[in-house]
Amino acid sequence: MESYVLGMGDLVDRPRVVLGVSGGIAAYKACELLRRLTESGHDVRVVPTASALHFVGAATWSALSGHPVSTEVWDDVHEVPHVRIGQHADLVIVAPATADMLAKAAHGLADDLLTNTLLTARCPVVFAPAMHTEMWEHPATQENVATLRRRGAVVIEPAVGRLTGVDTGKGRLPDPGEIFEVCRHVLRRHSLARGVTEPDLKGRHVVVSAGGTREPLDPVRFLGNRSSGKQGYALARTAAARGARVTLISANTGLPDPAGVDIVPVGTAVQLREAVLKAAEDADVVVMAAAVADFRPETYAAGKIKKKDGQEPEPIVLVRNPDILAEISADRARPGQVVVGFAAETDDVLANGRTKLARKGCDLLVVNEVGERKTFGAEENEAVVLGADGTETPVPHGPKEALAEIVWDLVARRMK
Asked: Which of 64, 95, 146, 366 could form a disulfide with 128 if both were Cys (CB 3.0 to 4.6 A apart)?
């Protein structure tokens, strides 16, 4: 990011973010997004619509951002704000983005400072929609969203939950912390790509599985594993920031929903298989990051298995679970579909990984060493990505998001 002068006269290097706020009840949540952006070192200029000021006043935005706030192109005309704000931004994020704002942005209308800013911005633009379910699902809104995505904007899928009043459904503003993560990813990629704003996964549907399956023994106990789901969630979050439509099949994680991701909760391996096969029907990429149990109990006890004095417990007979990765690799739902698997190994990591890659038939296999204090539940990971074409891509120890970026880089090359 180039140096620029702040209002205090200090010369600094900070990403310049424009936070657009349109007139929806979720406008109050944008205050939390603003706080996260400013506290993490971003210089934020808030540009609300006139309607947004009915929900949160200009004084609040100005106090939280440290910049004056205006909705009009006529204020400070000598500084040409309707052009300069967008020209100088490193990122524009509109949260919440109402149906009206999406329509204006898609059709190039410019009747206030925010819509003028959107027309002049040459940086990445992210929209976080929030509206009632019927408005989100209306064909006009869906066409506007498709238009914006086709032009390179990142339009985050709304969350499902409580809306205004008693209504519930899809249309809720995603959690501000998750919107912040999308913004951080988009800014990072924009910086690393030296100004390239085109999301390389736009128009793609990707399916990611995450977490660990649980195979019930009785109503209380289950066979499980230590997977936290963090790597799969990092993959889903990163794909959304790169413009993809993401279906995240989540097995027993307890993690907050990533912004812009459709969540399908599952419990067992059989349930996960059903969800993956259904979601993969129109997917460009399937990433099996979940730790799927190889076996499940042959029988399920309807009541809690009791301990009996003087008697050893009955042996638990196990049966094999379906091999989901091998199945979707052998029978691709559509031509050109890319399949990525994960291999958690405790010894002979690379040798076992190469054997598994050949056996599963996937395009890429992420191989990492696991153990009680390795990988599972941690924020970092270290891996080697093996390709069916014989390539090996080592990923040094670092955040799981860094591994996710490399995986998507390799997937994007194969889709080209």
From this structure: 95
